[in-house]
Amino acid sequence: MKFVVMSVWDVGKAAELAKLQDKVDTAPPSGYKTLANYVCLAHPVSGLPSGTGVSIIIAEAESAEALAAANYPAMLAGADINIVPVIDMPIGGVAEVEKKARG
């Protein structure tokens, strides 16, 4: 299953969090794979304090345990992490996916 992982963190912790992400990317937990990793150049949502960084990861995970193993170290380091399950929507085929979901 695919997930969007949004992390909000104090920019003073950027170096520490970058090292943790490098560990996940080079030796991922069983059942977890980072597909894409982005750092936002501006706040994607309003209300975040100055000095806050935001990163967005697209990942595949086979279980809650795999998600926890990949993200818990960053949480312990001070990142606020939100994990949202997502579904692939084909270009030009969204209506068909919606129709199937409706039953």
Short description:
The protein has 103 residues and is of the alpha+beta class.
Question: Which terms summarize this structure?
Answer:
single chain; 103 residues; alpha+beta; Alpha-Beta Plaits; four-stranded antiparallel beta sheet; 3 helices; 34% helix; globular
Task: Describe this protein's structure.
This protein is an alpha+beta fold and 103 residues long. It has one domain: ACT domain (Alpha-Beta Plaits, 2-Layer Sandwich). Helices cover 34% and strands 33% of the residues. It contains three helices and four strands. A four-stranded antiparallel beta sheet has the order 2-3-1-4, with helices on one face. The longest helix has 13 residues, at 14-26. The protein is globular. The mean pLDDT is 94.
What does the secondary structure layout of this molecule look like, with pairings?
Elements: E1 2-10, H1 14-26, E2 32-39, E3 52-61, H2 64-76, E4 80-86, H3 94-102
Antiparallel strand pairs: 1-3, 1-4, 2-3
